[in-house]
Amino acid sequence: MKKGRAMGDRVRLTAAQAMVQWLSVQMTEDGERFIDGVWAIFGHGNVAGLGQALHGIGDALPTWRGQNEQTMAHAAIAFAKGHGRRRAQAVTASIGPGATNMVTAAALAHVNRLPLLLIPGDVYASRRPDPVLQQVEDFGDGTVSANDCFRPVVRYFDRITRPEHLLTALPRAMRVMTDPAECGPVCLAFCQDVQAEAHDWPEAFFAPRVWRIRRPAPDAGELEGAVAMIRAARAPVIVCGGGVIHSGAEQALADFAARHRIPVVETQAGKSALAQAHPMNLGAAGVDGSAAANQAAQAADLVIAVGTRLQDFTTGSRTLFDARILAVNVQPYDAAKHGAVSLVADARVALEALSGALGDLRFSPDMQARADWLAAVEAHCATPPEGLPTDAQVIGAVQRAAPEGIAMCAAGTMPGALKLLWRASQGGYHMEYGFSCMGYEIAGAMGLALARPDRQVLCFVGDGSYMMANSELATAVMRRVPFTVILTDNRGYGCINRLQAHTGGAPFNNMYVDSRVEAQPEINFVAHAASMGAHAVRADDLSALEAEIAAARDRAIPTVIVIETTARPGPGDGLEGAGHWWDVAVPATGGTDRLKQAYARYLDHAARQSLIN
């Protein structure tokens, strides 16, 4: 990209040119761009300004075209998660619907604490042509635009109404995305006229900069108290959250658990920080947890929560843990939840400090339940189907065909089933369950495959999520990004249909057969995926599924394998001891016996909830 006309120690560029040039030289400690590139769908709010600037900078900050603003952002989020938050991508859209399409993705990144740079176009700062096409007008506030929708769902918001605002806004945005405690999405709403305005910029502003991810050490007093708590414990258990992976603390946790013989249970975000083969790994905890993990959690007298925000699926809606909680977290907000004793620090640094202070302290947990559980899972997932296969049987087939692959998913029945049943290798699991966003799966698989080209990405998606957002298959075909989609077709929203029944409701508006339609759909998912250029096949049974997964490894494009499954069973598919209560409010009155029974069960469980916040 041309630097423009030099004026002493200044250079004349448009605001958009300055933005992309600055982003192109923000580096990681490994010598890579922190912002890998920019996903873009252009419209009148960004094509003339940012569009011209991105074209000019070329490969120094590459631009990729997607099919939908939300799913482009999903791909960027998965890329960042696949890199452990050490790299990110940007997404730009026009004003109006292009911008608001990204709000859902912003919320997803916010909940999951993942870096994402959003650059929506905005209205004219000059207001000369107001109202412009797609402008949202607030009758009582002339400063409001559609981009104000981003304010609750980003960590940092700024509206660029003058070129020189970038001198402060861009470093602030990078600080947030690289701060382990504050990490999350950033929105720089870029007024479309300002994008094209020229300004004389200090040349020093464009000097390359390395952003180091800090590792805060624990406070000495907090560390001393934490060590005393662990020494006083009889039966501690570790809850492994996503912060372990974000910190790169996988080996530190593995060493800590093995040295002190403390069992580990997993959250959705923390699963695969330890391989399932690690001798202290009891597997999934909580609502979608294993018998071994939940038994250990209930029996524990100390819960060491490492890098987790203790969401309701992990805590069984505050009914699973009946013990003191020691919360190790880089974010003080999370470390203080549930009345926990806080140890505010980077997970890796904290675990190493704790282990050093504990010395040779070792506990004596009974790990037989772990062996029993893993044997039960293996047998259960290998059971031949009677009729259509269950989700558990599909998972078993995929596990046999690709044991070292990365299982990824986002919503529906599969997240619970995968957390419970997938025997992950280290790093072999990627779940978006903080926001549980239907439609993340295919775009997320593309972003994850871009981040982890060394592993086979196995995207589990139901027919409901596939119908919501599938268009980035075409992008992956065009960019030659391979991943494997296992599309389980149960003809509707099977997960919520089961929840509806469990909470006393009648089957209604979830399965196609229970919806107000004139004809039941006959959707040819194979033909649909093939029409976008993917290699698409139907697997008539589990052996065919295994064969197709093996064949997909050698392709340079996405593979979509469609298999019909039963809608009836739940996440554990009848596996004894799986799961825990989840607080989903049941109507207090309604008349049916089924509803009365569900309400009675609800009151019984709710009475056991901890009210400590």
β-strand number: 23
Q: Which outline best applies?
A: globular
Taking all residues together, what is the mean pLDDT? Answer: 94
Q: In angstroms, what separates the terminal alpha carbons?
A: 53 Å
Number of helices: 24
Q: Major beta sheet, specifics?
A: 6 strands, parallel
Class from secondary-structure proportions: alpha/beta
Strand order of the largest sheet: 5-4-6-7-9-8
Task: Specify the CATH homologous superfamily of the largest domain.
Answer: Thiamin diphosphate (ThDP)-binding fold, Pyr/PP domains
- Do you know the CATH architecture of the largest domain? 3-Layer(aba) Sandwich
Radius of gyration: 25 Å
Helix content: 25-40%
Please write the CATH class name of the largest domain: Alpha Beta
CATH topology of the largest domain: Rossmann fold
| Low-pLDDT runs | none
The percent range for strand residues is 15-25%
Number of domain units = 3
